[in-house]
Specification:
It is built from twelve helices and 40 strands. It is of the alpha+beta class. The longest helix has 19 residues, at 683-701.
């Protein structure tokens, strides 16, 4: 099959040579991968799962070569976008210092280098080279590597030793090391195949860390004595229920270690005095199905967020020395509310800071625990993102906050919890003549067919005509109760300055309107997410922000499922789709309990071995619902080492769609052969990846802008 030389896209490029479109051969010997519930599930491309088959890597490489060749005509545009992103962000920069004991900790970047340099200096002195101590230079650690990521980064209580871990291929299996900060050299201690969570005992002689099972589930927590061989490490806890994972943490006071075991709907927590690292963890509450809780010790009290009386949680406290499991000893401080979700609680010596969400927006509630006086932090904009920042010190009345909005660059805020004074410590600098007043932010509520109203956040250049002529990009996620905040992106300015409209659909399945919003977009109600997204797309067109031909959609991971399922529902509604590491082979993946994350995610998607969930998932799984149609232009990405969404899902999806698609639409697959779920690790490579996606969107939605760049 040849790319048609008369293709409409070629009229907008200087030269587009005819390229051979890769074709993945169908597996003749295995016409059906699964037979279940009296149904045969065809999977003619199941052979792509076999990573060790040389034909698989050859096919992925051919797809990459094809994608590169087809997009070659946009190289000047991609280069221009990359330069904009690079020059818009200060290359040599420093983060806001965070005070902790005698030091102030920060990280900085250097022009031309990909990774952050983590440092510390005197507590009450601004960062400078004369007093700086470099703790970890990511550029040195990453030398000679295609990929690099820091997992754990934990200081010992006396701040003399640093535990850190590294991943060099994106598979999210880390090597844990320990660095003596007085010499700058690593100690002999080295532990392979750890996960993200690492914590110190109070004495600094023991490390607690987690490891993974074959399904990439953190299921064991170990205790390591500094200076000993890893083979001597002691197994502290093993979680045998495949729906649960283990995490180790520590309270801000550093008094207690927290051992948390949780599924997507149920949790339990154990506490251990950090001064007694070889002791036994004490259970707070035994797990109860569909009940989640988290605890915060503070002096004589134990605070707890728990959803036993409602999905949006309530706040209770109890005597620390009492019987934690006896509800008679609980005092309700904040009752459950249908309209407000309690998302977290952070204890300080005098204060309890509660993260709430109301009408889709984050709120920060500060409580003085002795008097019980409460107030919310006042934020200056109607649409924004705000969260608790780095606050390592327990004895503090200053709260570090992170704040941003679609038109306000991220800022680190020091908030005095007594005086309520707001101080901007640092705000991200945006170069190139950016002015917030040049842009407009709208918050719409979009009605759906079942009577629900979905929030839609929209940002555009002020004064842009509402006549449907503007190109637009609609983003969404909609899973796991995760909220997509209306934040700032300096990279996004490259689209906004080209008169793109950018929008976020806060669909059901996310946590944007609380836990019940999540519930209404998961399990048997998962299709609500797709219908919400389609309704938001229709609203953008109806309100004149854009037209169907100039509307692009983008989603990553579970958001990739969102955009591809929506595309299957309404292929006529979208001009282009970017599906990044998309979860598109839902049925086959959820039928395979040996794959990473599958069992633990039955509570999000349902178990298709149950006939009811089989039919629901089969009804929306993007790979299983591809039909012959005039599809939008499509760019699909994958990561060869991705442990969350296996590379073969997007590969199979593209292979099948090539056989079914009608017309001359672009259909591209781009696989990162040296990375995992999160794509390239270096900041310059990440900008290049974004520039590539934007070049695709501009070419397909606003081709007149290709040569203009």
């Amino acid at each position: 099959m040849q790319w048609p030389p008369g293709d409409a896209h070629s009229r907008h490029t200087k030269s587009l040579e005819v390229q051979t479109i890769p074709q993945a051969p169908e597996a003749a010997a295995v016409p059906y991968a699964v037979e279940i519930h009296d149904a045969k599930i065809p999977d003619e491309y199941a052979w792509l799962r076999h990573r060790d088959n040389p034909a698989v890597l050859e096919y992925l490489q051919k797809e990459n070569e094809y994608t590169e060749a087809v997009m070659a005509s946009t190289a000047p545009l991609k280069d221009a976008l990359f330069e904009e992103m690079k020059t818009r962000t200060p290359q040599t920069d420093c983060s806001a210092p965070v005070k902790n004991g005698p030091f102030a900790y920060y990280s900085r970047t250097v022009e031309g280098k990909d990774y952050r340099i983590r440092c510390r200096g005197p507590r009450d002195r601004a960062p400078d080279s004369a007093t700086e101590q470099v703790l970890l230079d990511g550029n040195l650690l990453a030398e000679g590597k295609d990929y690099f990521e820091i997992g754990a980064y934990e200081l010992s209580p006396d701040q003399r030793v640093l535990a850190y871990s590294t991943d060099f291929d994106g598979a999210e299996k880390f090597e844990l090391r320990v660095r003596d900060l007085s010499t700058g050299f690593d100690l002999p201690d080295r532990i392979e195949d750890t996960y993200y969570a690492v914590e110190w005992s109070a004495c600094g002689q023991f490390l607690f860390y987690s490891t993974l099972d074959e399904a990439m589930r953190p299921y064991r927590v170990w205790r390591h004595r500094l200076g000993t061989n890893a083979a001597e490490d002691v197994l502290v806890c093993q979680e045998d229920d495949q729906a649960f994972h283990l995490e180790i943490g520590k309270t801000r006071s550093e008094r207690f270690l927290l051992l948390e075991s949780s599924s997507l709907t149920t949790s339990e927590t154990r506490l251990l005095d950090a001064t007694q690292p070889e002791g036994e963890f004490q259970l707070v509450l035994p797990r109860r199905p569909m009940v989640e809780y988290s605890v915060e010790p503070q002096g004589d009290w134990l605070w707890m967020l728990i959803n036993d009386t409602g999905r949006n949680f309530r706040l209770v406290r109890m005597p620390f020395a009492g019987n934690w499991a006896d509800p008679a000893e609980w005092v309700e401080v904040i009752a459950h509310r249908d309209e407000v979700c309690l998302e977290g609680a952070d204890a300080f010596s005098r204060f309890l800071v509660i993260s709430e969400r109301e009408r889709g927006l984050p709120q920060i509630l500060v409580m003085e625990t002795t008097s019980g006086e409460q107030h919310r932090v006042a934020f200056p904009e109607a649409v924004y993102a705000a969260s608790i920042g780095a606050n390592p010190e327990f004895e503090s009345q200053t709260l570090r906050l992170a704040y941003e909005s679609p038109v306000s660059p991220p800022a680190d805020i020091d908030y005095d919890m007594l005086t309520r004074q707001w101080t901007v410590v640092r705000q991200q600098q945006v170069m190139g003549g950016f002015h917030p007043e040049d842009y407009q932010v709208d918050r719409l509520t979009v009605p759906t067919a079942d009577g629900v109203f979905v929030p839609l956040s929209v940002v555009s250049r002020k004064g842009l005509p509402r006549d449907g002529s503007a190109p637009a990009l609609l983003y969404g996620y909609g899973a796991y109760g995760l909220t997509i905040e209306a934040g700032f992106s300096p990279e996004r300015l490259s689209l906004l300055e080209r008169d793109f409209v950018f929008a976020i659909a806060h669909v059901r399945g996310g946590g944007d309107l609380g836990e019940t919003w999540h519930d209404k977009g998961k399990m048997e109600q998962k299709p609500n997410s797709f219908h919400d997204f389609v309704a938001c797309a229709e609203a953008l067109v109806a309100h004149g922000y854009t037209s169907s031909a100039r509307l692009g959609i983008l989603g990553r991971s579970a958001g990739g499922l969102l955009v591809t399922a929506s595309m299957n529902l309404r292929p006529d509604l979208f001009g282009a789709v970017v599906a990044s590491v998309p979860f598109v082979d839902v049925l086959n993946t959820m039928l395979d309990a040996s794959l990473p994350l599958t069992v633990g995610e039955y509570e999000e998607w349902g178990n298709p071995r149950d006939p009811r969930f089989f039919e629901i998932i089969r009804g929306y799984s993007p790979y299983d619902n591809l039909r012959p149609a005039q599809h939008p232009h499509l760019l699909v990405t994958a990561g060869l080492h991705d442990p969350r969404v296996s590379y073969w899902e997007p590969a199979k999806f593209v292979a099948r769609l090539r056989r079914l698609a009608a017309g001359n639409q672009l259909l591209l697959l781009k696989t990162e052969l040296g990375a995992g779920h999160f794509g390239p690790s270096g900041r310059y490579d990440a900008w290049k990846e974004t520039a590539f996606e934007y070049a695709f969107l501009i070419r397909t939605l606003a081709p007149e802008l290709v040569s203009a760049s």
